[in-house]
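Work Package 4 report. The design task specified in the project plan requires that, given a folded chain encoded as structure tokens, an amino acid be chosen for each position. We show below one input record used in the internal validation round.
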């Protein structure tokens, strides 16, 4: 019988935690063992670090699995843990330094943030938004997006943040699905030197829409906007008039905190539901231990609040821990490709949390850009969103971390709410490309097609065998789909949909989505391993591979390669790259074809869309491209891909 997923790529390098970090790390040395001995006791200890109004009387109710409930009977308002208690201790501590794309900047203290949250909460109340309602937030990365989210939480309304790059149609679909009562937006947002018309898209999305009664509009882009009297309200006219006191609504631990839509590969977007008590417990605990946050840290997560990473690790996790963060509004290449490194230098950023897609883009742009800035303030680096190829990990380590900073490669999903598989920087010896081991209290394993655990040294399917506090509570309005998608692959076990291998030391290596696994001559080969072998070559910055239909081998590997710097592709390089993959992981994984391309098709959160590359390779009409960030690249790749350079038959 063939393996569920072959284990091909071997990585020998490893990096122990720096002594100085280990000796004063937030996570105590035996945290994994202690949590494993009694996971619920671990989560109780973490939950107690938050501010509750009423204590819970049951830690976990599993009587209606998979509809689990955590901290049953407990009540809280998450904004008290994130704001009030810190304001009581020190109102002048900075919550956020913010830099706009055009270069303007602001710093906001915890005291100011709480006051603005309360004013905005009172403005929402005046618009008759309250507990049980849902508010759509469609904004760019301005401080007010954080204010808007927390203002909803303050009054017990759920927020549904829709990424500011989505179209009016996508916004409408999400507004309708959860019957939003109000929308919070901006006139326009800055992106790569121009203003994106958010208000215009909101207007278009609301044509004939019934549930939205009010639209609160922040002025930012100063672009002209249409105005519907009675429905539309300027933030600067309404919010400053309000009282800066707003009593926090007492919420049940299991009351809705937010809905966040994930598009998935096909079909209607899923409204992932998160609740108050368990979610905040998970994000607060992981933020403290994974990022090892200290009073004097300046933390920067480069995500957008439109994604779960922004929710958990820009808003709720950092604020629950009284952190000081940087928020940057724009793109990394404006006005120049060194903007991020300039920001790190200017603000003295100590912890940077970003995505492999960004790291690989910087590899392509060349190391002289970070090399020209002072990055010595950095002490810890994080990665999230996709598997990080070992060579990208090494580049991050050398050129951003200056070989001094541990890297935490954090695996998790919108559905998991918080980080699930990760190193702890004072404890874990890291290996480039591995997310290492489950977070304390997390019961993750690798199984074969029949659900049996695979032995070390083998690949398979990632599963999570026990519930955890920050887990999704369902898909909004569709309990059957929730059971079907996440709980039906193996009975009683959460199925994330990712491939994974476990090495001889018990380290986990994420292998990408199960749906992307290729079947080559009876062998299941992960896209991640072949891509990592390609990125391992000195000329390659980024690579995507797909299995395209092939008469002889079932599927053949089609590779798409982005070169570093100013290198140009040629036939000898194709031969060399195929040989490189064969040497690195074996002849079975040698791409049948290699196409050079300036970029890869990506989702708006930066994940490679292999489905489209497969369509191109099999010369099919392209599937849905509406969630694509860079639609024009598809045409460019198609033109290149129909030229059969490097075909091997
Ligand atoms: C946080 C986020 C979830 C999917 C997940 C994986 C992939 C995320 C990693 C990763 C390998 C990682 N939420 N993924 N992090 N794969 N290593 N460190 O990205 O809902 O948008 O996506 O992303 O496939 O299932 S998400």
């Amino acid at each position: 019988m063939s393996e569920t997923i072959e284990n091909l790529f071997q990585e020998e390098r490893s990096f122990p935690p720096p002594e100085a970090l280990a000796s004063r790390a937030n996570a105590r040395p035996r945290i994994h063992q202690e949590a494993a001995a009694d996971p619920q006791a671990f989560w109780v200890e973490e939950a107690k670090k938050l501010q509750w109004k009423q204590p819970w009387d049951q830690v976990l109710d599993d009587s209606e699995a998979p509809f689990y409930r955590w901290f049953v009977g407990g009540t809280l308002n998450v904004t008290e843990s994130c704001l009030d208690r810190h304001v009581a201790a020190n109102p002048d501590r900075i919550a956020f330094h913010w830099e706009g794309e055009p270069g303007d900047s602001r710093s906001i203290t915890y005291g100011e943030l709480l006051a603005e949250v309360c004013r905005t909460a009172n403005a929402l109340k005046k618009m008759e938004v309250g507990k049980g309602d849902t508010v759509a937030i469609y904004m760019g990365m301005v401080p007010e997006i954080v204010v808007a989210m927390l203002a909803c939480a303050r009054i017990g309304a759920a927020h549904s943040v829709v990424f500011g790059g989505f179209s009016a149609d996508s916004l409408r679909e999400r507004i309708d699905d959860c019957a939003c009562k109000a929308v919070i937006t901006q006139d326009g947002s800055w992106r790569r030197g121009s203003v994106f018309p958010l208000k215009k898209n909101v207007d278009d999305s609301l044509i004939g829409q019934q549930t939205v009664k009010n639209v609160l509009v922040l002025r930012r882009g100063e672009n002209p906007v249409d105005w519907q009297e009675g429905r539309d309200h300027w933030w600067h006219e309404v919010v400053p008039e309000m009282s800066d006191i707003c009593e926090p609504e007492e919420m049940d631990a299991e009351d809705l905190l937010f809905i966040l839509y994930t598009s998935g590969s096909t079909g209607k977007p899923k409204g992932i539901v998160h609740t108050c008590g368990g979610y905040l417990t998970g994000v607060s605990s992981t933020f403290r231990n994974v990022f090892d946050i200290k009073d004097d840290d300046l933390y920067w997560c480069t995500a957008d609040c439109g994604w779960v990473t922004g929710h958990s690790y820009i808003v709720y996790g950092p604020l629950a821990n009284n952190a000081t963060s940087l928020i940057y509004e724009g793109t990394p290449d404006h006005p120049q490709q060194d903007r991020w490194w300039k920001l790190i230098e200017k603000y003295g950023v100590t912890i940077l949390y970003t995505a492999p897609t960004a790291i690989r883009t910087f590899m392509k742009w060349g190391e002289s850009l970070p090399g020209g800035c002072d990055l010595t303030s950095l002490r810890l680096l994080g990665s999230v969103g996709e598997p990080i190829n070992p060579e990208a990990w090494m580049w991050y380590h050398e050129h951003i971390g200056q070989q001094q900073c541990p890297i935490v490669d954090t695996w998790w999903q919108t559905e998991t709410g918080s980080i699930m598989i990760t190193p702890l920087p004072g404890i874990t010896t890291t290996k480039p490309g591995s997310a290492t081991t489950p977070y304390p209290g997390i019961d993750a394993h690798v199984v074969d097609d029949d659900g049996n655990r695979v032995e070390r040294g083998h690949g398979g399917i990632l599963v999570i065998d026990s519930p955890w506090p920050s887990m999704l509570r369902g898909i909004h309005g569709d309990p059957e789909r929730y059971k079907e998608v996440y709980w039906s692959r193996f009975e009683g076990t959460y199925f994330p949909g990712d491939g994974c291998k476990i090495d001889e030391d018990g380290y986990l290596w994420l292998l990408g989505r199960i749906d992307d696994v290729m079947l080559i001559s009876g062998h299941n080969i992960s896209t991640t391993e072949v891509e990592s072998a390609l990125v391992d070559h000195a000329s390659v910055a980024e690579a995507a591979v797909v299995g395209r239909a092939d008469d002889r081998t079932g599927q053949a590997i089609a590779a798409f390669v982005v070169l570093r710097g100013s290198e140009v592709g040629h036939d000898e390089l194709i031969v060399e790259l195929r040989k490189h993959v064969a040497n690195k992981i074996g002849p079975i994984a040698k791409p049948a074809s290699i196409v050079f391309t300036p970029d890869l098709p990506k989702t708006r959160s930066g994940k490679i869309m292999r489905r489209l590359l497969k369509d191109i390779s099999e010369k099919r009409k392209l599937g849905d491209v509406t969630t694509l960030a860079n639609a024009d690249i598809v045409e460019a790749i198609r033109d290149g891909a129909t030229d059969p350079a490097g075909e091997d038959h």
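Residues 140 and 164 are 6 Å apart (CA to CA). Validation will be extended to a larger panel in the next phase.
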